[in-house]
Amino acid sequence: MVWFSSCLQDLEELMATMPVIGGSQWESEGEAVSSAGRLASACLATSEAGQEQWYAVQTRSRHEKIVATALQGRGVAAYLPVVSEVHRWSDRRKTVEVPLFSGYVFVRSVDSNEAMSKVICADGVVSIVGARPRGTPIPDGEIEAIQTLLARKVLHRNHMFVECGQRVRIRGGALEGVEGILLEQKSETSLVVSVNLIQRSIAMKIEGYDIEPI
User: Would 133 be classed as within a structural domain?
Assistant: First the structure.
């Protein structure tokens, strides 16, 4: 990051001007060390604040695609997971894409007032989900699991949100690394994958996959 690199350069220049410690120089050098320490802390804080994270955006009803388009137009990285459904009418049927989680779009953003103002002011946005004023980050693994399942076109179904249970990870194959909660009902074993912040889940059968407890 440009700002972080600049901070490091300033820190290096400050350290280069510091004389070798000895005798009466302790006081002035102590001030220099203190200044260097404050600069390093500021650099670290700025670097951490500048990390992009996932956030959930709540939208107006049936505005998910409008919001995703509006966000992208504002330069915000937006992710709208969609699935295909067949809609039937009396005289025809058509395959359409619908949001996986109705009423939500995900954004990848830094945690700053400027970045979040672009999100909250987009047409159709109701709120950024989580702690005020700038929302609560979503762990990368939760979004990556959804992206993997959809990209691999894994058969799945919507499932009620599951919070408790044995957490497992898939080992090997196209779904390696996907984590979720193991669910056994009758003769069927499923993996429930969730985005905990919005309490939405999908489930997939995992017969034939190797799993390990987390």
Answer: no
DSSP alpha helix (H) spans, the chain: 2-16, 26-49, 64-73, 113-120, 140-151
Residues 64 and 43 in one domain: no
115 in the same domain as 93: yes
Beta strands 77-79; 157-159: pairing state: unpaired
Q: Is 134 part of any domain? A: no
What contacts 130, CB < 8 A, 6 or more positions away? 55, 56, 136, 137, 197
Provide the 3-class DSSP secondary structure of residue 158.
Answer: strand
pTM: 0.75
Report how far residue 6's alpha carbon sits from residue 93's, in angstroms, rounded to the nearest whole number. Answer: 58
- Domain assignment of residue 90, given as a range: 53-128
Cis peptide before 133 (omega within 30 of 0): yes
pLDDT tens column, 135-184: 999 999 999 999 999 999 999 999 999 888 899 999 998 999 999 999 98
For residue 29, report the phi and psi dihedrals to the nearest 5 degrees: -70, -30
42: tokens are 């500021």
